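hey so i finally got around to running the thing on that chain from the lab meeting. sorry it took forever, my laptop kept dying and i had to restart like 3 times. anyway pasting the input first so we r on the same page abt which one it is
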Amino acid sequence: MTVDIYEPVINIKGIGPGRAGLLKNLGICTANDALWFFPRRYADRREICKISALKEGLSSVVVARITSVNCKRSFRTGTHICLCEAEDGTGTVSVVWFNRKGLDNILKQGMSIAIFGLPSFCNGKIEFSNPDFEVVKDKSDVESFTGIVPVYPSTAGLSVRWFRKFMCKVLEDHLPLVQEYLPQRIMEKRGLQSIREALRGMHRPDSEERWKDSRKRLAYEEFLFLQTVLVLRKERLKISHEAAKITSDGYYYSRFMDSLPFELTASQKNVFVQIFKDTRNGHPMSRLLQGDVGSGKTVIALGLAAAGADAGIQTAIMAPTEVLAEQLYSQTQKFLSPSGISCALLKGGQTRSERILLIGSIRDGRTKVVVGTHAMIQDGVEFLNLGTVIIDEQQRFGVMQRGEMLSRGKTAHLLMMSATPIPRTVSVCLFGDMDISLIRERPAGRKKTETRLIDFTKIRDLMQFIINESAAGGRTYWICPRVEDDAENELVSVEKRYAFLKKHLGPLGIGFIHGKMADNLKNTELEKFRDGTTKVLVGTTVLEVGVDVPEASVVVIESPDMYGLSQLHQLRGRVGRGSRRGVCLLLVNMISDEVAERLKIMLKTDDGFKIAEADFLLRGPGKITGLKQHGAAGFKVADVLRDSELLKYAKEDAEWLISDTPALLNDPGFAEKLEIFRKNGMDASFKA
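ok and heres what got predicted. didnt touch it at all, straight out
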C-alpha cells in the first residue's frame, strides 16, 4: 500500500476510531500533523546509575528488580497508592506512585523495571516519588527507555509509552516522504539542516548539539515566512493611496484635547506629531507604539479616534479580553462621548437584540468608535467606513487577527500598542512593516513603585502591612503561578492562597480571578475590587496587562522566579497608577543567592526597556528544554528574544528572496508551507 504523508491517522496500522479521536484532541489528524507535533520537553536519561551511586537532587535512571508490590487506597483521603521495593545488587530503593490506577495489574514481584526520577534520602532510605518507569524484558527495552527521551503533550486515554511508539512509526514510515522547500542557497549560507534532519532531531535527538541544530532550522524558517509576509505587506502599503486623510485641526480632536485633566508629556506630544505626519498625506499609517506600563498610551488611541471622527471615518479599538475592552470603553465614554462622538462596545455574550442594534449602527456609520474584543472580526460585523484600527496590547493577538481587522476597511490606518517593551534590534525585525514610536516618560504625578524581595518568614508582617494599606484606602493584588493545586507541583495556587487569605484577612473582603473563569465572573470580581467591596484580589497573570484600578497600591507576586523579568514588570505596573505610591513585594520561600541575583534588576529600576534588555540577556541560547508558543506570532519553535540573530538573518533573506527570486513565491513546496504558516495564524490578508 502506498504511504501518503497526508493520510489520516486512522489509516495507520494499530489506530482505530477511538485512538484517532484522541489524537484529534491533540490536533493530530494526519501523519504530517504528527511530524510537526513536537515534544514539550525532554528527559535526559543517558546515564544509568547503580542504586549505591544515587545522589540527592540529581535525576537518575535505575534498572532494578521488584522485590515487593503493595497497591492500596487510602481510607482517609481516597488516594490510590502503589508502593514497590526494588534492588539491583548494590542497594534497595522504595518507589511510590500516587493516583496511578491499574499499577497492581502491571507491576509484579520478580520483574525488572527501569525507573527515572529524583531520588530523596531519609534516615538512610532512598525513595522515588511518582517516577517515570517501564517494565523491561531485555536490553532493547532499556535502550528505548534511556537516552534523550521526548515528553509530548498528552491527552487522557493515550499512554506515554504508546504515544512514543506511535511517533517512532510515523517517523519511520512518513519522514522519508517530506520534501525540502527552502532554497539550497539559503540553507548553505545559514548552515541549516535539511527538513528531514530537523524533524528527526526534534523528535529523537541523540545529543544536545543535534537538537540545537534542528531547532535552529525550524526557528529560522518560521522567521523567514514571517519576514516574507511583512516585506510583501510593506510593498503593498507603499503603492496604496486609499487611506483617509486625518489631521489634528478638527473640532472633535480639539474638544478631546481640551477635556484632558492633565498636561501631555513630551513623549506623548511627539508621538502625536509622528502619527499625524503619517495620516495627513493619504497613505495608510502602519505604526507600533511602545510605552511602558502607565505611560499614557490610551490617550494616544483616543486622540487618534477623535481626529478620525473629524475625518468622517470609523475607528475600531481592539482589546485582547473583555475586561480590558470594558475598561477602554469606559475611557471612550468619558473623553469622547461628551463631544458628540458615538461610541459602542462590541463583545461576546451580548443578547441578540443588543447585537443587532450595534451591528446596524456600525454598518450605517452612526457609530464612529467601536471598542471590542475579537468579536469585532466575526462574521456579520460590517463597517461603513472603517479608517483606523487600533490594537491594544498587540502581543496578545496573532498576526492573522490583525490582518483580518485591516481587511474590514479599504486601507485602514493601523496603530498597534504594546506595554511590553521589546529590544529595538528585535522589534525592527519583528515589525519590519511598521514604523515604531516610543513613550519613555510617565505622566506627571505618578510616583515610582517601590519593589522589595521578601520570604515567608515575614508573612505576619506582610499581613499587617496589607491591613494597614486597606485601612488607608489602598487595595492589594496577590498573584499566584497556578490556578489549581497539583499533587506533583508545589507551586502555590489561587485556590490555596484564596483560602489562606480568607482565613487570615477575611474582614477585608477577598476576591479571586483567573483565566478559566467566565468573562462575566471576571468582570464581577473586578468591579467588587474597584468599588472596595473586596480589598484583596487573588489571581494569576490574567491581571498582567491593562487592568487599571487607581486605588491598587500593593501587588504581592508569589514565586517570582517562575516569571520572566518583563512579565514581573507588567505585574508590577498594576499598582501605583493613581495618586498613591505603589509597592511590589516579590514573595519567595527562601532568598537564595541565585534568586536574589536574577531579581536584582527588578529592585534597581522600573524602566521597562532596561528590564526587557536584561530579560533578553538572561535567556541566553537555551538548553534542550522543549518548546512552547512564543509571543504574538504563535511560533511553535522560534523565540524572538533568544533567536534574535536568526530573526535578523531571516529579514535579510526575505528581502533578497522577494527582490531577486520572486518566482520562489509560486514554487509549490515553498508556497504550500507559506500558506500553512498563514493559516496557523500569521497573516490573513496576505495572498501568496
